[in-house]
Amino acid sequence: DAGVIQSPRHEVTEMGQEVTLRCKPISGHDYLFWYRQTMMRGLELLIYFNNNVPIDDSGMPEDRFSAKMPNASFSTLKIQPSEPRDSAVYFCATSWSNQPQHFGDGTRLSIL
Amino acid sequence: GENVEQHPSTLSVQEGDSAVIKCTYSDSASNYFPWYKQELGKGPQLIIDIRSNVGEKKDQRIAVTLNKTAKHFSLHITETQPEDSAVYFCAASRAGGGADGLTFGKGTHLIIQP
User: Fold this and answer.
1) In A39-67, which positions are buried (b, 16+ CB within 10 angstroms) versus exposed (e)?
2) Cβ–Cβ below 8 Å for A98 and B95
3) pLDDT digit string, tens, across residues A24-42
4) How many C-beta atoms surround the C-beta of residue A17 within 10 A?
């Protein structure tokens, strides 16, 4: 089975530009999580969905960040406008019921 | 909210020796404790997990112990091998498994010396 698929794997863009990160969950998984990993803060939860509905977005750093899950097969995390401090690795993870979360290989984002 | 502390940040052991990584958590309502292994350029991969109704769980060379009273849990790797070199993260959540966001420790860089 295919795992969690994230795209792009690497993104380099200039400050002020809009960035869109994409995630395709494992088929049948009804929970989807977005995490961010930095050296300073480690792995931190940004937002998660259950059955395409946002459940907890308390980790979203500010209004520049938004996430959507229009259907069970796709989610996006958008940053607009982007800032250098948004540079990090962004991970998507999915799960079903009370089973463990499976992580994608992440998107390495660099904002210049 | 939950706070997870992980020690040590770096651990170097000789191949064949055992490695132990320890974590403490603050939220007494947490009841699910997974361990993830992360290799360079990859996402975290689950290696073992434990739920609060169990004190110990073992899978071949890997074991996890949980002390709910003291709010700490540990990862034990025996007979370490070069492929065990990676960064290991502990985590905690209130849900029984993946149905809630995970709070992670800061990670342990495990180095296996040949």
Assistant:
1) eeebbbbbbbbeeeeeeeeebbeeeebeb
2) yes
3) 999 999 999 999 999 999 9
4) 13
